[in-house]
Amino acid sequence: MTVDAVEEAVEGAMTGAVDKTTLANGVRIVSRRIDHVRSVSMGVWVDAGARDEAVTEGGLSHFIEHMLFKGTQKRSAYDIAKAFDAIGGQTNAFTSMENTCYHARVMDEHLVTMADLLSDIFLNSTFSEEEVESERPVILSEIGMVEDNPEDHIHTLLEERFWGEHALGRSILGTRDQILAYNREDLVSFFSHLYQPDRVLISCAGHVDHDEILSLLAPAFEGIKARDGFPVREVPTPSSGVSVLSRDIEQTHVSLAWPGLPVTDEMRFASSLMNTILGGNMSSRLFQEIREKRGLAYNVYSFNASYVDSGMVGVYAGVSPDKLTECLDVTQHELTRLCEHGVDEETLAEAKAFTKGNILLASESVDSQMARLASSEFHFGRQLPMEEVVAQIDAVTVEEVRRVAEMAFSQEPAVAVLGPDPSEAKIRKVFGL
């Protein structure tokens, strides 16, 4: 597909109208009708996550996410699972640093059942003591699963190093001691405190009418009562330095981070394109230099993590222990080259086409459109027209890409290393720490 073809396809990808209703208590319901599909995706979102936990509350948002599938006043955990399976529905939930979401996708003929199920688990979960005890070892197993996966664990170590004592530096899952200590009252109290009506958003995309959504959801959700104030989100201060964890495994895993941009920053598109060029796809500089030309790593990439008030730009690679220094040297060289020389117009045009192509592919998924509705509402208070997004991507200049690279990579990084006998001295020497 040519660059022009990508632009045409993107411009026509999001044609369905968006409707929004705010209930009297502040709950928002947003929907997009898509006539050419037969499925419906619905998400019940809370603008609250792990960063809203006090230091003594680590992991409660995620624990609650599990518990909302463990039984309501009229359905057992088995009843909930069986009801979703009976309609061929796909359902799940996730907890992030700033949001929690309970979502499902079904054929349009099962919309009523899906709406009833999601409403029931969100509004009527009982948090029974028996289910709390049965779910506790499941979460402990999840903590162990992350620790057993070096690529997952290295990012946890990096976040601790980068964000320090701030909530963004703590694991979404909490610690083992915390999970073992929580009881039903802790979960219910936290749920009541954070699940405020003005933090609740229901987004729906697919073959559905907004009025039908309102008739199914409004009577139930308008009953949520406002409570005491939501905890204030403190702006974090990123830090640099090196964290090493010795582990007897095959590879050395290394991840680096520098300060990035908030999710609504006007330079966010330049940062996204910079990330694509640096290590965001197979033709990116890090992938080509580290994997394709030198064979130093199988898995290498860069990434952006953006929040409402802050952000992180990062790089990850998994290498043989004897190749770590060379990999870091190449990484440092590419960062310096990007800061000092930037990119040419052709490279930037290719990154723009890649980005817009990904937007097009995502637009064909009702799940992606459902999530996009929620993200736009949370971050901008409105739906961003696709034409506006495309125009902002196209408007990014080579100088803006160089500038966001310089803003990030001219600062000292935070570095996390996991593997057999990682050398902190070598890492500090490469980056002059």
The helix/strand series, from N terminus to C terminus, equals HEEEHHEEHHHHHEHEEHHEEHHHHHEH
Termini separation (Å)?
A: 45 Å
Low-confidence stretches: 9-14
Query: How large is the share of residues in beta strands?
Result: 15-25%
CATH class of the largest domain: Alpha Beta
CATH architecture of the largest domain: 2-Layer Sandwich
Q: Evaluate the radius of gyration.
A: 23 Å
The quaternary state of the protein chains shown equals single chain
Instruction: Please list the strands of the largest sheet in the order they lie side by side.
Output: 1-2-6-3-5-4
CATH homolog superfamily of the largest domain: Metalloenzyme, LuxS/M16 peptidase-like
Number of domains: 2
Tell me the helix content: 40-55%
Task: Summarize the structure in words.
- There is one protein chain.
- Strands 1-2-6-3-5-4 form a 6-stranded mixed sheet, with helices on both faces. Strands 7-11-8-10-9 form a 5-stranded mixed sheet, with helices on both faces.
- About 1% of the residues have low confidence.
- Helix 2 crosses helix 8.
- The longest helix is centred in the N-terminal third of the chain and has 20 residues.
- The chain folds into 2 domains: 204 residues, Cytochrome Bc1 Complex, Chain A, domain 1 (2-Layer Sandwich); 191 residues, Cytochrome Bc1 Complex, Chain A, domain 1 (2-Layer Sandwich).
- 48% of the residues lie in helices and 18% in strands.
- The radius of gyration is 23 Å and the shape is globular.
- The chain is built from 17 helices and 11 strands.
- With 433 residues, it is α+β, with helices and mostly antiparallel strands.
- The two termini are 45 Å apart.
- Its cofactor is Zn(2+).
- Pfam families: Peptidase_M16 (PF00675), Peptidase_M16_C (PF05193).
- GO terms for molecular function: metal ion binding; metalloendopeptidase activity.
- Belongs to the peptidase M16 family.
